[in-house]
Design goal:
With 189 residues, the chain is of the alpha+beta class. It contains four helices and eight strands, in the order H-H-E-E-E-E-H-H-E-E-E-E. A hairpin with a 6-residue loop joins strand 7 and strand 8.
């Protein structure tokens, strides 16, 4: 950084001697631009960042989260039983409410999710520890049709493949479910 500053200052001095005040102003602008290039650029919001951004303004429990192009879709079950669908912009982390529904039943529908010891955020960390890559989605799965216990289904993309990892909501144990080739051309995240 200091070397760049010295070189830029020397260039500005040389331009001032040769080209006068207009050239010096241009060199100063170029120096400022060079400084902004070396400044760290803000990284895109990942799955954990999207969950944190969603929960910041909408306290509750993340039920699902998935990447769709340049946005994250996040469903949050509120403490009042509401289901809020949020959109989090991947580039900035800006959050917008897409829809909010009040739970019409007696609250039993989401009781297991709310009582789970392992949150969506913890499930993502456990899944990535078991199978490194980028989290693309996480979803609470309590499908009664298969008579199995509820679990977190975490989709991870790595090296052109998609891997589903199931995370136990009580123990946090992660188990790789299956790998798929990543040939979905509509998924441009």
């Amino acid at each position: 950084m200091k070397r760049t500053l010295y070189v830029s200052s020397a260039a500005a001095a040389a331009v001032l001697l040769v080209g006068g005040p207009v050239a010096a102003a241009a060199a100063s602008t170029a120096e400022a631009a060079a400084g902004s290039v070396s400044a760290p650029l803000r990284a895109a919001v990942d799955a954990e960042g999207a969950a944190a951004a969603a929960l910041k303004g909408h306290p509750g429990v993340v039920e699902s989260l998935d990447k769709d192009g340049s946005v994250w879709h996040v469903n949050v079950i509120g403490k009042d039983g509401s289901n809020t669908e949020l959109i989090v912009t991947a580039a900035t982390g800006a959050v917008a409410v897409e829809n909010t529904d009040q739970n019409d039943d007696d609250g039993n529908e989401d009781a297991a999710l709310i009582a789970a010891k392992v949150t969506a955020q913890q499930a993502m960390k456990a899944a990535v520890a078991a199978h490194p890559g980028q989290v693309w989605s996480v979803q609470w799965d309590d499908d009664d049709d298969n008579d199995s216990k509820p679990y977190w289904d975490v989709e991870i993309k790595s090296g052109g493949k998609t891997t589903n990892v199931h995370v136990d909501p009580t123990s946090g144990k992660a188990t790789v479910s299956h790998d798929d080739n990543d040939n979905d051309e509509n998924d441009n995240g």
